[in-house]
Fold these 2 entries.
Entry 1:
Amino acid sequence: MEGGAEGEHPREGGVNPMEWRRKHVLGLADFSTEEMEFVVDTARSMEEVLTRDIKKVPALRGKTVINLFFESSTRTRTSFEIAGKRLSADVVNFSSAASSVSKGETLLDTAKNIDAMKPSIIVLRHPASGAAHFLSRHVSCSVINAGDGSNEHPTQGLLDLYAILKVKKKVKGLKISIIGDILHSRVVRSNLHSLGRMGANLYLCGPSTLVPKEMSRGGVTVTNDIREAVRDADVVMMLRIQLERQKTAYFPSLREYSRKYGLNTEVFSLAKKDAVIMHPGPINRGVELSDELADSSQSIILNQVETGVAIRMALLYLLAGGYGASH
Amino acid sequence: MLLIKGGRVIDPESGRDETGSIVIADGKVKDFLPGGDAPRKFDGRVIEAGGKWVLPGLIDMHVHLRDPGYEWKEDIRSGTAAAAAGGFSSLVCMANTSPVNDHPEVTRYIREKAASQGTANVFPVAAVTRGMEGKEMTDFAELHEAGAIAFSDDGMPVRSSLVLRRALEYARAFDFLILEHAEDHELSEGGAANEGWTAHRLGIPGVPAAAEEIAIARDILLARQTEGRIHIQHISTKMGVDLLRMAKRAGLRVTGETAPHYFTLTDAAIEGYNTNAKMNPPLRGEEDRMAILEGIGDGTIDAIASDHAPHDEYTKRCEFVAASSGIIGLETALPLSMALLAGGKVSPARFVDLLSAGPARILGLKEKGSLRAGADADVTIVDPEAEWEFRESDVRSKSRNSPFFGWKMRGRAVAVLCRGRITHSLLKGVDPDA
């Protein structure tokens, strides 16, 4: 038995009835603020499904979603898989850890093969920046970017926006500091749009080798002083130190990194009383974030994971035509 | 006998910019007849050049012909056809073929194939080191005898300062020229676009300007140390121009070229992960572009060369970081360079210097780059007013990697002569020689 007593579609009370014409979600760079708000509103109605006893609606019955992952990922892939299954889509996981950016043709050939199997949506995770843009030009189905190199991770950007809205009710005017490896972070590049363009007062902080000075523009403040970043912040988002992306050392040691750029209770006490801690995961406990803060009441890290499913449900639903079909 | 009649003859090498006719016989320039009235009766072919520019044949001193080894990207026949169509009567081809042009047999192969199948003079550049591995010097003198006119490990610049020092020092005795692709590979490794806001925003690993500038500075210092001759290829940054200017003020025997894309485009062209805007060195910022224009205007930059780098479609139809670097340029270098004239910083004579007389001077091609009596009858006839669109379907090269398709161009080569032979013609009644 599929579908709850409430019918085929999640309720859409309060959803901005704007037209959804987007075929792909490649990045937030070309999302309008209205569009981002619309996705969050849709996610809100999706969450209602998640409160039901049977957490499943038949909205995407007969649609196929392929998770095409060229990088290892557990949480994002699982999140998309659960999102797809709760909408009754057939979700197929295709992982190819062996692929590398040096084999450019592999992506195109694999994608064309998969496209020939007529999925509705490909969810792509790939180590090359721009891979989702590239793919979208060569397949007939929709493409959702689940992280492309250091470029964007748009669903993370939207779920961060939603998670903050849930606790803070607004984004505009908040001091939001993102601390860590800014240079290689696709999360930051999406958050520049989801949080930055929504009016947050964004601070980017980390060692100078990992924070490009060019990023200090459009109201974004770049600092190498974690205290300046955390002082009076409403939100402190810690990033994973991505040792796997670093060919040469960007800082002397994890020990020194942790001393200068790790968030501990002493530094966090500079933030506003009601400040919250975020992290896109996975956490290196004791490196960028102390154990006690990670598990503290001010951490909304698990809320991020929860909103992630709702945001991904919303996007799958919107891209697969669920919205159009119900109107 | 052949007469190019009544054109505007622009030949900076002989200080000439006036209406006149050029008489050609036996593959050489025979005579210049001033004024519009050439002999009524002329015993030979006549090319009417009224309203056209008549220039010493253009020389592209930086071309990758991909032959031998990568003939599916380009070969000597298609590459020289593209050269002729683009207005070039001569080209200089780089050594990064397969096998590498580090042996006289390869040099001879290129020369012979060009002589039998080519529609342009082809001057091979041999590698500085065997296999372009940066370790042992090639046999400079023997390669020179086989037809190599200069030496370069283009694309894989000599990493070791010691090896380059020895090469410059050794080459000095023969007055050989070394061409350097200036790049500190350690600094540029992994990079795919100019390090700057655009690359940071797109999440593309950057190539810092310093990767090029450090290598330029090193090359200049080694030229000073050894009193050797070095030519810096495809300069793309502001500081690169400044360094060359400084070297020239110091009286060093250093010259430099840039490519049309460096004064035409900026790294904004990579937007949307456009792999046809990926080159090495990468397209830089607006400040760099302006500095290149200034360097061209004040004479710091000696030559414009296309860095014609054909690549098959599949090495460009992929993720940006994985894509090959480089674009085809033989068929767009002339109009893109002519756009400099509109800016007023470049006169027609300077334009000819950048694309013909300059390269001939740098390379020591004494019979080229001029229309004086006795020079080779290499002539490029340009319609400076011609307006046309660069279309993919018109490309003569085997490869299609260009960011300039659909561009409206002004100025076009309407005929090209290579040692008296017509290799390209868009003129009515003037057919290319078979």
Entry 2:
Amino acid sequence: MSSNVIERVLPEKRALINRPRPSDIAFRAILNVMSYSSLLILAAIGGFLAFRGFGAFKDNGFGFITHAEWSSLVGDDGKEISTFGLGAMITGTLIISTIALFIGVPISVLTALFLTFYAPERLKRTLVTVVDLMASFPSILYGIWGFIVLSPMATYWAKLVYKFLGWIPFLSVPTPAFDRSPFLAGIVLSIMIIPIVTSVSREIFAQTPLERMQAAYALGATRWGMIRAVALPFGASGVVGGAMLGLGRALGETVAVYSVLNIVFKINWHILYGYGGNIASMIVQKFGEASFTEKKALLAAGFVLFVMTLLVNMVANTVVSRAVKSGK
Amino acid sequence: MTTANVIANTPVAPRKPWKATKADYIPLFVIFVLAAVLDIIVVAVTPMKGKLAYALLFFIFASGFQMALKWYKLGKRAAIDSLAGSVAITGAIIAFTPVASLLATAIVKGVKGLYPGFFYHDMSVANYQSPLNQGGVIQAIVGTLYLIFLSTAISLPLSVLTALYLTEIRGKASGFIQFLVQAMSGIPSVVAGIFIYSALLLTTSLRGSTIMAALALAILMIPTVTRTAQEVLLLVPRELREAGLALGATQWKTVATIVVPAARNGLITAVILGVARIAGETAPLLFTLGVSNKINWNPFSGGQSALPYYVWSGLGDGTELGIDRAWSGILVLLMLVLSLFVVARIFGTRKVKIK
């Protein structure tokens, strides 16, 4: 009788199943499909902008990239006569972004070095929060601040630079007009890219192997000697990647640049002179009153901007992720 | 008890001979005072004028004196080290000065236009040139909240499912998807705006509305939420997943009842960071939002307002009163973003990084 009791307690032997349950099949299928949403979105953006802008590419040919003129007039016969060229805007965008990198990257690297190797622990934690905070400020805040607060100062600085370095070709001006110049826009952008470049550089510097740092100190290096011999070579690729992420942001910034830059469709190499170009801001500026044809050309301009930023960001992300991986 | 034991058991305060004592700070203090005095004298005597001259000369004097002192006491290499330290600190000061200036200006200029009615009046009773005690931003606040809610509703499922794919399935396409998500985070906001315009508004009879703007903002929100959610999900210990599977749960059950609840706070942080990313975006709204100067409760038709758009219009108005209004608007927007940021910090189970 006792054996019967035991038999009742033991559960019935279940069959082993090693094929996936329906719930898992559904779960994995949904995730597999959803994960391609980013591809779908990117493809849709590129596809739609290229499709709508195709007319502008076809009418203007290669000149769409190289010519500086942008005009759309309705002729006497009611037909639209239009020439669309992004030359001035593309060079303007590149000039402003270069200025931003030129000013922003050294400051960011110094800040990252200060945060990693010099700042006391508590100050460091606070300042890292401030850097993150800076990244989340709305871009229109930078725009209105640049327009109201920074613009008079930057004009003054531009005059100083012109006074002492005016003999350098690109720092000269045809007439003394320093307002709303690429220089000002570049300064605003440099402030906007400081958070991202700083945080990427700081992350790389923080991974500097302790043994190497201690080895440098043990050999009698000063703190600067250690930074130059160990930290900078170790973090160089990360800094380059961070700078490129900053470049990606600078290329696509719209509202802040629009607020401080005088947009004129003419290539301007004099960075202190009061006009310049920027693709993103130009789209905003022209969109309101654009005709149907011009709107399509603006969408084509958006496509050019999309491709530019996408390429820069892809390269930057590859560089950064390589740098982070090699650090481990 | 042996002597060795006594020594081992007596707590000894660790000595830190490398730490600076008060006496070490005296020369530093003297140097700063000396540099400041010299600074003022030189600016007064020579034709150099302005804040820039003060800052530059102070830097030269202060770091120069420190270098000289170090050179005298410890030699050339110590002097170079001291110079590098001064340069790094100066770089950090230059980087953080704009933050202080931005916040101070926003508060000082923004407070001028704030009055209680600013938070419950709309702009149908006033325009940008009206006195500052008329009209307000309630329509913009409602619009911004609508935008936040809708773009979160659109982007959250996509982002979390993508993050789950990257952490739970780790399929063949993981590397590629990761790459795409990173590439997506670099899309300029203006491109998101004109994309929605070109896809949905250009050739159709649809007009700008809240949902259109929310779609554009969702594009910008997805990469931020995905990347943060992924980092958080990776922090869930492997043992938890293994325990779930060992108890006979399916993968779906494990994820739904163990992994996601374990990462809940982090996922909330991810959403808040995404919201903070889009709350202040202006450029996409210019193409997709339409216009409204009073509250529009219907998100699917009719124009809408939003805080960044209010600021943009005030700035575009160009008059003194318009710009004052813009500052008040930006102050409200900034308070919203900062409070989101603080909430994200409180929920954050890890250090939040914005990449």
